[in-house]
Automatic annotation (TrEMBL):
Stretches of the chain forming a coiled coil according to its record: 81-150
Protein name as catalogued: EXTL3 protein
Subcellular location(s) of the protein: Endoplasmic reticulum membrane
Domain of life: Eukaryota
Entry similarity comment: Belongs to the glycosyltransferase 47 family.
PANTHER family: ACETYLGLUCOSAMINYLTRANSFERASE, EXOSTOSIN LIKE GLYCOSYLTRANSFERASE 3
Stretches assigned to the Glycosyl transferase domain: 665-756
KW Lipoprotein (keyword) present: no
Amino acid sequence: ELMTGYTMLRNGGVGNGGQPWVLRWSSRIRLTWLSFTLFVILVFFPLIAHYYLTTIDDADDAGKRIFGPRTGNELCEVKHVQDLCRIRESVSEELLQLEAKRQELNSEIAKLNLKIEACKKSIENAKQDLLQLKNVISQTEHSYKELMAQNQPKLSLPIRLLPDKDDATFPLPKSNRNCRLHNCFDYSRCPLTSGFPVYVYNSDDYPFGSSLDPLIKQAFEATVRTNVYVTENANIACVYIILVGEMQEPVMPKPTELEQQLHSLPYWRTDGHNHLIINLSRKSETQNFIYNISTGRAMIAQSTFYDAQYRPGFDIVVSPLVHAMSEPNFLEIPPQVPVKRKYLFSFQGEKIESLRSSLQEVRSFEEEIEGNAPADYDDRIITTLKAVQDSKLDFVLVEFTCKNQPKASLPTEWALCGEREDRLELLKLSTFALIITPGDTHLVISAGCTMRLFEALEVGAIPVVLGEQVQLPYNDVIRWNEAALIIPKPRITEVHFLLRSISDNDLLAMRRQGRFLWETYFSTSDNVFSTVLAVIRTRIQIPAAPIREEPAVEIPHRSGKAAGTDPNMADNGDLDLGPVETEPPYASPKYLRNFTLTAMDIYRNWNSAPGPFHLFPYTPFDPVLPSEAKFLGSGTGFRPIGGGAGGSGKEFQAALGGNVPREQFTVVMLTYEREEVLMNSLERLNGLPYLNKVVVVWNSPKLPSEDLLWPDIGVPIMVVRTEKNSLNNRFLPWDEIETEAILSIDDDAHLRHDEIM
């Protein structure tokens, strides 16, 4: 059966159907055998190999070990491991060094911590000492104030005693023509501390108000509304002002009616003391209707006076009000150079009443030398001026007959010719302008003469007044010899020689001063009214109102690093300019009002040419107006007025002492969109002695860059924004200025410290 079965297996199964089963069984046997063989190889062979190797390493001869662990030196013998060994050794050495450094730093940190603790203790001790010093200083100052209060009694303002409204006990002068301040003015209404209050009547409340020139009245009312001295409280007023002219001819009231209306004023007080009657003249025609009116003790301000009417030191000669409601066009005013113009001098006028007789009965100089003096010097003036014109030594223009109808004038007065524009065109071509006073010596001033003076000063023609008896406008407070030539009529034959002998420097100085006087006292209605008040205030010795400070709108800015000191700027040689360390800002003492009446309060440089570059501070004797603070030109100007010897040419530190033992100054620097130049100029001020602060007047509408770093010079830098671009912004009284001494410079001024001092 076995054989049979074996045979069947070989044949593939029983019969035809057993062959597949046999094949499947054979394949299973082979897979099982193969799996068993692989298991034996993978499991038992490594075990046998491991056993074999371990038995070899256990041999007594250590040198015969092949696979056992070896020492470090033996491994280093392997070539590819030697580099790793060297790296390990270097790293070990560095770690040892770092550990040593760490220990050293720890010891240093411990020492520094000890020092910090010691410094903290010393700071605390210093704070305690500083606090004690502050307490000592505070106690000392308190004791000093107590001693000063004990030794210096308080001085309060005097009590103002006002007279009654109807006070009639004021002594009367023998005649109204003899009125002066001492006998016709009530000083009790004007104490020094009163502030000079002025009450202005409303002309429309009285019948004569309807007769006033509308332009004159409107200009006067506009000026009154803005004046600092005008008050609405008549009970405390020092001066009462009423406007009575210029009047319109057809509706002019009769003298008796006007006199009654003046005497019926509510504060006239029977005689009109402390009243001022103003009669302004807008045209060249002369109105002197007040001549026939009894004005009592009232002062009169007008442009025409007879000697029987004018009271020196009491009445006021005013300039004509040409520009009533409009500002003069300064662009049309000719420049001050060239000094000499086409004509040496010019004159146009006509004297209707005596011109014909003057031309027909001209006397020779020989007859006058023999003792026959002329009845009217105008005859000699006509002959002499015509002779100068005919000689053609110089270009002159004189006309004694008007081409058109002359303006109305008083007897013996030279009438104006032509229109105002034509006269100005001629004066623009003239170096000098002749002004011939009226032949009637009793007429001390006329509206025609003041109009000629106004026009000459306006266009820069130097006035030459023939007639020393004339009373020019505001003559008791204005030095007319600095802007005009006043020559007696008998010297008419020497006028040509005199005018040719004046140097160009003197001509320019007189023209500049004339322009200054015209701008300050004549040009506008505000100036005319303010000048009239300033004359009265000066006569009764009341100080002017303080100038209103200009509010400074600060521009924010950032301060950068501390500025260095330029060795070229700080090299002062052997000069001792002041303390090396910068002092903290110290403001000058403030006084609301200065009531002293000494010459020390007036500063004027007599050696320089007169003109708008002069400095006129407000003083009781100086009738300076607010507009006089406007100066021309630019550059550097220094004005120490705090005391000492300021302005004497000495160094700033040498001027200290006496009333001003301690003082500083402020730098006012004008700039316009030059940031780099400005920064350099500010840095040069670092370390400047006695410097209080720097006020930078930013004249540009464009603000400085936000990222601009301003230098730190040790004192405050105030950047002020202006409303408009003007060189005169350097002269505005900024409220940030706290010192009396001011150094005004441009942003490109390169001055050493010794030059500044």
